[in-house]
Design brief:
The chain is of the alpha+beta class and 143 residues long. It contains four helices and seven strands.
Length: 143
């Protein structure tokens, strides 16, 4: 990840899961993919023993209606794939749409602001609602 451009469009593991960030990681990957309709960036950090993991996908699309559709797709795919304990809609006017999802061992934030969509899944027992300001900052910076 040292070759990745700074700043990256995600909230760091040190911020959302400091106990996991203290563990040595086996893999840290940053990817970019650009197309006519979207700029996609992805960050993945994990340990093979699954004691620490973070995955973040950020997209900036050309049109707002595409961001709305992408948000709905990301949410539906996550709910179909993971055993979900709780889904909380975020009632914060800074987001156009946002949810925090608890799967037991993992927490996930999916949010949209304008043409930007961020999805971040972290293995932690900490509440991602405590990091809404951080998620707002990422979405606002990468508009």
């Amino acid at each position: 990840m040292s070759d990745a451009p700074e700043p990256l469009p995600y909230v760091s593991m040190e911020a959302v899961a400091p106990e996991a960030a203290a563990l040595p990681l086996d893999s840290s990957v940053y990817r970019e993919r650009r197309s006519l309709l979207t700029d996609h960036r992805e960050v993945s950090q994990f340990r093979w023993d699954f004691k620490a993991s973070l995955w973040a996908g950020f997209d900036r699309v050309r049109f707002t209606f595409l961001a709305e559709a992408l948000y709905r797709e990301r949410l539906a795919n996550f709910l179909d794939t993971w055993s979900v304990v709780e889904v909380r809609e975020v009632a914060d006017s800074r987001f156009d749409q946002a949810v925090v999802i608890d799967t037991g061992k993992n927490r996930c934030f999916i949010g949209r602001m304008g043409r930007a969509v961020l999805m971040e899944r972290v293995r932690t027992d900490r509440d991602l609602m405590d990091h809404l300001d951080d998620f707002v900052a990422v979405l606002a910076e990468f508009q």
